[in-house]
Automatic annotation (TrEMBL):
It comes from Nanchangia anserum. Small subunit of the glutamine-dependent carbamoyl phosphate synthetase (CPSase). CPSase catalyzes the formation of carbamoyl phosphate from the ammonia moiety of glutamine, carbonate, and phosphate donated by ATP, constituting the first step of 2 biosynthetic pathways, one leading to arginine and/or urea and the other to pyrimidine nucleotides. The small subunit (glutamine amidotransferase) binds and cleaves glutamine to supply the large subunit with the substrate ammonia. One of its GO terms (molecular function) is carbamoyl-phosphate synthase (glutamine-hydrolyzing) activity. This is Carbamoyl phosphate synthase small chain. Keywords: Amino-acid biosynthesis, Arginine biosynthesis, ATP-binding, Glutamine amidotransferase, Ligase, Nucleotide-binding, Pyrimidine biosynthesis.
Length: 389
């Protein structure tokens, strides 16, 4: 193997060789694959990827470098990055830097020249796994040969299994803003006052709200009900975010209090899972999740099929065959699944019939991805308007 060798090692002992890329050293996290052909900058800066090692199935990554517009937050959040064939040179009119420089500057350990197709097939067969990327000084003696000797793999697997599994892991507090701030509507008078709870929010969501006339007060995830109510919101937005939704007890209690007060609620991804739990449904871990910008979802209300952006490893466990009583509280009335994934039948949206709340598991804000789901922001505004009237 080459001097600059690197390894990706999964907790079940599956190992693939590659070459060091980005920062050198060692990183551990949950290995997940993303099928997006575009949008690597948005993926890297999506806080929902906290503590995950992202494998890109698209073989060419970095072709357009990085630019000053496409980041979804203030930093790269992925724990590690696995690619097949990074572009040796970025070329695009918006390029402000090379991707590898960004990874190196932010200390993100990556690996290139990996057989990402084999790794993805492995993750599809056995499910998401904890994994580690090792390069430079983090490679133990004997690792520089292929196949890697069993005793070396054993040492690396023992390091990988030190990271706790994603089930039961709370990460929102690691990524949420610690300061509140306000985003003004884009080129129009405010139409609605919205509180957005930042659970690891991508920049695209408040942008979509502001473009429709929302004055968006972004609050830390730890905000209390009184903090939220002090803004006299027309509606509350629950953002995307990392970790297991079962750990989001504070946010679930907050959502329940909002439902009780009939304040319109709109949730995306983790926000959707929180609304689901607030209504009394469980959440569960998917085998390998949905990640990418090319996922077909059916809107069960209209029958329309959208191609949507996804990034979720968990899902809400609720019936798909029509409305039922919200299990948590009779006061919340009836609720139904509003969207379904056409790949695997996973629930992708919730519609409340008696309280003003809706949510989607996918990403209508796109960034990256198609804008097919943009109408959901319009539904939230319609809900706020009807409710105000
Ligand atoms: N993008 C998100 O909000 C992800 C939600 C949750 N952490 C999951 O993996 O399912």
């Amino acid at each position: 193997m080459s001097e600059d060798c690197a390894l990706i090692v999964c907790e079940d002992g599956y190992v693939l060789p590659g070459r060091a890329w980005g920062a050198r050293g060692r990183t551990v996290g949950e290995a997940v694959f993303s099928t997006g052909m575009t949008g690597y900058q948005e993926t890297l800066t999506d806080p929902s990827y906290r503590r995950q090692i992202v494998v890109q199935t698209a073989p060419h990554i970095g072709n357009t470098g990085i630019n000053d517009e496409d980041s979804e937050s203030r930093q790269v959040w992925v724990a590690g990055y696995v690619v097949r064939d990074p572009s040796p040179r970025a070329s695009n009119w918006r390029t402000s830097g090379e991707l590898e420089e960004l990874l190196r500057d932010q200390g993100i350990v990556g690996i290139r020249d990996v057989d990402t197709r084999a790794l993805t097939r492995h993750l599809r067969e056995v499910g998401s796994l904890r994994a580690g990327i090792f390069s430079g000084d983090a490679l133990p003696e004997g690792a520089n040969q292929w196949p890697v000797p069993g005793y070396v793999t054993d040492v690396l697997v023992s390091l990988v299994t030190q990271v706790p599994p994603m089930v039961g892991t709370a990460l929102v507090h690691e990524v949420s803003t610690d300061q509140s701030y306000t985003i003004e509507p884009t080129e129009m008078e405010p139409r609605a006052t919205i509180v957005a709870l930042d659970l690891g929010m991508k920049a695209g969501s408040p942008r979509c709200l502001a473009e429709r006339g929302g004055r968006v007060h972004v609050l830390p995830a730890s905000a209390s009900l009184d903090d939220v109510l002090s803004y006299r919101p027309d509606g509350v937005f629950l953002s995307n975010g990392p970790g297991d939704p079962e750990t989001a007890t504070h946010e679930v209690d907050l959502a329940r209090a909002l439902l009780t007060r009939r304040i319109p609620v709109f949730g995306i991804c983790l926000g959707h899972q929180i609304l689901g739990r607030a209504l009394g449904f469980g959440t569960y871990k998917l085998a390998y999740g949905h990640r990418g910008v090319n996922q077909p979802v059916k809107d069960l209300t209209s029958g329309r099929i959208d191609i949507t952006a996804h990034n979720h490893g968990f899902a809400v466990d609720m019936p798909l065959d029509g409305a039922c009583q919200a299990p948590a509280d009779a006061d919340f009335g009836r609720v139904e699944a509003s969207h379904v994934s056409l790949n695997d039948g996973v629930v992708e949206g919730i519609r409340c019939l008696d309280v003003p709340a809706l949510s989607v598991q996918f990403h209508p804000e796109a960034a990256a991805g198609p804008h097919d789901g943009g109408y959901l922001f319009d539904r939230f505004f319609a809900l706020m308007e009807t409710h105000r009237a």
